[in-house]
User: Fold these one by one.
Assistant:
Number 1:
Amino acid sequence: MSFRNQNMVLLLVRVVLGTTFILHGSQKLFGVLSGPGIDGWLEYLTSLGVTHHVLGYAAAAFEFFGGLMVLTGIGAELGAAAILITMVGAIYLVHGAHGYFLPNGMEYALNLGLLCVAIICGGAGTYTLPVSFKK
């Protein structure tokens, strides 16, 4: 595979992963797209036995802001690592007990986590938003 094609693949992975988590994080943080909002999200986590609300806030923020970082390519590896943490938590707390396959298994969370690993290992590629902090 040529270097140019690898960058296109990384861009495709970033677009899919980033938009997915911007949307999921928006549901949790802001209650858009039929999401629970932060109060509903924290209530759900409490029903799972997670009583430390800071973890709920962190997970929602990791999804939304991690998605933004991955999509734009600015700090993509860090954003992907944040998302990966939430996917490991989702598998541990919810999906792992239901086996691999959907609707409740870990199939979706595991595959999204593996896309995070691809970004962490492969970087953002060359097609990112241009950023310059020079004056």
Number 2:
Amino acid sequence: MMSNPSKDINLIQSIPYGAMITFEQGRQLFLMPGRLIRGQIDPEEARFVGPKGIYDLYSQARQKDQEVTASSGSQTDGETGSLNTIWLMAIISIAIGLTNLLPIPALDGGRILFLIPEILFKKRIPPQFENVIHFVGFSALILLMIYITTQDFINPIQLP
């Protein structure tokens, strides 16, 4: 039977593992657009998901964890029975954190983009201009969120 491998380690050993996994997840996130263009990844596997899609993924991961726990017969070992769910939450956290740093207006990365000229030239971009750009970016993000959430209901995502 195939399952997620696990290895008992202490807190000190887990820090470098966590950093390596976080780096690898971030790298894969940034490599994904190129892989989509080259056809190495199916577009359905790389689509955006909203809150409903995340809940659907969570439910499926939780169900797989319960199946693993039931088939192994160890109801007391909560760690091995929750690896899919923990892994999914880690991936979502990393993806949200890195996406928030993209230079898109209305996100933190967009704000950083406006701070760079201020740091370099010691002159602030006019607030009216900055507000308009952030409003347009925020409006686009809201429209994108509505579209993605609609897709989550019309075409629910399924784990492989």
